[in-house]
Q: What sequence folds into this?
């Protein structure tokens, strides 16, 4: 199977290791991965911050960059949510019938990583080995926009050596919310405090999720507190094997 | 309002800018900062919302057709909004046929004038009122007071708010921010009926209120209510409540005046089937609320001799004109969205500065009053979507929030003057849009970010950011931009020998 990687601007710039892990994982599972170089940003930050007009060209860019892709996979639920849920609104706003049609055509082909693995490849055991205690934070957009359900957990449970511990109040937002974390910094911090307390209560060494944006938020607090807990994208756990590399 | 619930909460006192207060209200982040510093408020609202959240999930889980009920609730309201003009006229005819009078009010002042004139015509100086958010919105009590008419709140929590000269902080549980020790103190201070040895036991507190209210019910010539629903087909008006005090107001006085937002219509009697299942479960997390009062005009030898229905617009037709935002008029005021909102749970209701707090308030208030008066409210959300997931009439609150942010940005660009147009966020967003518009600019920006961060990064961490990003590093580190982007790695890997 062929798949185009939509890395997202956030992962590309700040979390290249997540992209590398995604490529390793997909190739290990026999997927032929390509990376359309012209891709930049899906436009979520502009759209959610109120800059709708600035979003339109980014939507045009996305649909044209990935026009020929059979399937587009991204290690980010929130960027996939933007494409699948909000691109309709942006296209509507543009008043451009051709764009509306292009958006309609591409939306069902854009998948979040766990959706692609479980639904398209039909795998849950990806052959990973990760001998650590891990807690999983279901990000808001994976849960309530994409409705990925327990797909990520099914993938994680199948990892050899993993000790998966349940996160209390897991479905509560961590308080990131894009520019919310800056515009409403105090409220965001109050939410983050509770999320970090829940993570620490599990005793896990690693907090994982399907979105690096939320993980940057949670991980930023864990780092500041010198909590000794790492935030790590799910793709990196699923890409890990017991192979000892020279 | 549940008696037990009124008594388990905590104190705070933040000012509320009502709908009649001119000028923009305090920005949400500022009001929230103050509320967040109140530990007692945080603890009590957190506890109360968590309790009701869990209880709601249980009673909703009992219904196998919950999704279908919510979809029906949404569809009925959508039909109402599409044919609102016809249904309103039908309602007017039905109410008149049943012996009632109908009054139309364009805004809060008109509504208050109608009510004030009716009360004055009956020579009443005191009236009793059922808990009603619409009359909070129009600030009816204050308007009546200006005419020398005292309006007694009869919902226990609303009475607590009134006696304390406070303002509601929750749609359903207005005194959620007050604890019972404070309520005891308040009753001792303000009610003659309070004995010297009054305890803070909820039952003892309720008993004092009961004795106080009973006297008011029996003396009042005029009762005022809001309306949860009004049936166009029959002219029946309905109030859904927990205490029975509402029923006292609607059945004992000679004259009953109901003040209702024009969107509270339902077309047919049978539509109750949907809402009387979804509303109690979503609001008090009960299968059925204790008192559902329904009245149709006036009846000989029973109940009020005179019935008036005041239909209030007060900005609702503006909401209706907004294609994306009009779904906010589906709202049946259950407050489930408040109880699941991680922002509301931490700031409480007063920070919103509106009679409609929480997620529904964050969309309704800017639409009712204008984006210029409440421009910070659409940003008072992390867009987590918990509100949409529980809404029994399926209002896509995150989508409307984002839509209102677009309106806010456009409004500021139009009206904000040069300073607003050249604000750091706006400039940054424009620059970023340009960067993302071309691969070359984007890749150059990645390299620039890596170079530009050197004064900030120390020991593999960024612990302090400048300007508008400083809020981030108050309690979070930021990882520096890594030496190699993903695309540089990809290029190195797929085109060995070539330098990115």
A:
């Amino acid at each position: 199977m062929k798949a185009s990687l939509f890395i997202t601007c956030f992962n590309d710039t700040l979390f290249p290791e997540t992209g590398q892990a995604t490529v390793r994982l997909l190739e290990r599972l026999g997927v032929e991965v390509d990376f359309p170089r012209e891709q930049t940003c899906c436009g979520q930050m502009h759209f959610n911050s109120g800059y709708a007009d600035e979003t339109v060209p980014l939507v045009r860019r996305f649909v044209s960059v990935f026009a020929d892709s059979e399937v587009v996979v991204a290690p980010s639920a929130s960027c996939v949510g933007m494409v699948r849920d909000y691109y309709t609104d942006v296209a509507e706003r543009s008043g451009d019938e051709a764009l509306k049609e292009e958006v309609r055509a591409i939306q069902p082909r854009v998948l979040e990583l766990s959706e692609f693995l479980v639904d398209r490849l039909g795998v849950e055991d990806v052959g990973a080995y990760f001998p650590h205690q891990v807690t999983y934070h279901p990000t808001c957009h994976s849960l309530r926009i994409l409705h990925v359900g327990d797909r990520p957990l099914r993938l994680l449970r199948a990892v050899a050596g993993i000790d998966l511990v349940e996160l209390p109040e897991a479905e509560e937002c961590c308080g990131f919310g894009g520019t919310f974390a800056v515009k409403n910094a105090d409220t965001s911090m109050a939410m983050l405090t509770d999320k970090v307390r829940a993570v620490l209560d599990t005793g896990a060494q690693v907090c994982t999720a399907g979105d690096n944006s939320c993980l940057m938020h949670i991980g930023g607090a864990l780092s500041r507190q010198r909590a000794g807990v790492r935030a790590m994208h799910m793709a990196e756990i699923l890409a890990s094997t017991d192979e000892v590399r020279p | 309002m549940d008696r037990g619930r009124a008594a388990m909460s905590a104190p705070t006192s933040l000012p509320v800018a009502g709908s009649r207060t001119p000028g923009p209200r305090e920005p949400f982040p500022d009001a929230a900062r103050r509320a967040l510093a109140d530990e007692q408020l945080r603890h009590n609202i957190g506890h109360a919302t968590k309790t009701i959240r869990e209880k709601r999930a249980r009673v909703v889980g009992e219904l196998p057709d919950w999704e279908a009920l919510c979809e029906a609730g949404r569809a009925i309201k959508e039909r109402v909004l599409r044919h609102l003009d016809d249904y309103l006229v039908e309602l007017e005819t039905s109410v008149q046929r049943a012996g009632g009078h109908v009054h139309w009010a364009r805004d809060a002042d008109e509504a208050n004038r109608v009510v004030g004139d009716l009360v004055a015509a009956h020579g009443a100086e005191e009236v009793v009122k059922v808990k009603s958010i619409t009359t909070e919105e129009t600030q009816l009590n204050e308007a009546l007071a200006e005419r020398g008419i005292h309006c007694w709140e009869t919902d226990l929590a609303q009475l607590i708010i009134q006696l304390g000269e406070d303002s509601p902080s929750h749609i359903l549980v207005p005194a959620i921010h007050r604890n019972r020790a404070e309520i005891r103190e308040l009753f001792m201070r303000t009610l003659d009926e309070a004995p010297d040895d009054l305890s803070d036991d909820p039952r003892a507190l309720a008993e004092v209120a009961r004795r106080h209210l009973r006297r008011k019910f029996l003396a009042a010539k005029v009762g005022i209510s809001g309306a949860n629903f009004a049936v166009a087909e029959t002219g029946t008006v309905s109030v859904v409540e927990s205490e029975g005090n509402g029923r006292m107001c609607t059945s004992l006085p000679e004259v009953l005046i109901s003040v209702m937002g024009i969107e509270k219509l339902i077309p047919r009697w049978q539509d109750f089937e949907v809402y009387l299942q979804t509303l109690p479960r979503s609001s008090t997390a009960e299968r059925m609320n204790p008192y559902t009062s329904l009245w149709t005009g006036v009846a000989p030898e029973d109940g009020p001799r005179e019935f008036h229905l005041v239909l209030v617009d007060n900005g609702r037709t503006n909401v209706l004109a907004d294609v994306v935002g009009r779904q906010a008029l589906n709202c049946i005021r259950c407050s489930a969205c408040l109880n699941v909102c991680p922002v509301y749970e931490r700031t409480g209701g007063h920070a919103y500065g509106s009679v409609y707090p929480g997620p529904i308030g964050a969309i309704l208030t800017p639409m009712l009053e204008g984006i210029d008066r409440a421009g910070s409210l659409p940003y008072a959300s992390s867009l987590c979507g918990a509100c949409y997931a529980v809404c029994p009439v399926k209002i896509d609150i995150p989508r409307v929030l984002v839509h209102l942010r677009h309106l806010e940005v456009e409004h500021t660009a139009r009206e904000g003057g040069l300073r607003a147009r050249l604000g750091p966020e706006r400039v940054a967003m424009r620059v970023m849009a340009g960067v993302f518009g071309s691969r070359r600019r984007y890749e150059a920006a990645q390299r620039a970010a890596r170079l530009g961060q050197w004064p900030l990064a120390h020991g593999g961490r960024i612990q302090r950011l400048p300007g508008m990003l400083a809020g981030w590093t108050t309690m979070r580190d930021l990882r520096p931009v890594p030496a190699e982007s993903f695309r540089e790695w990809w290029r190195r890997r797929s085109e060995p020998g070539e330098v990115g």
Q: What stands out?
A: The first strand of chain A starts at residue 2 and ends at 5. Chain A has two domains: 2-120, 133-239.
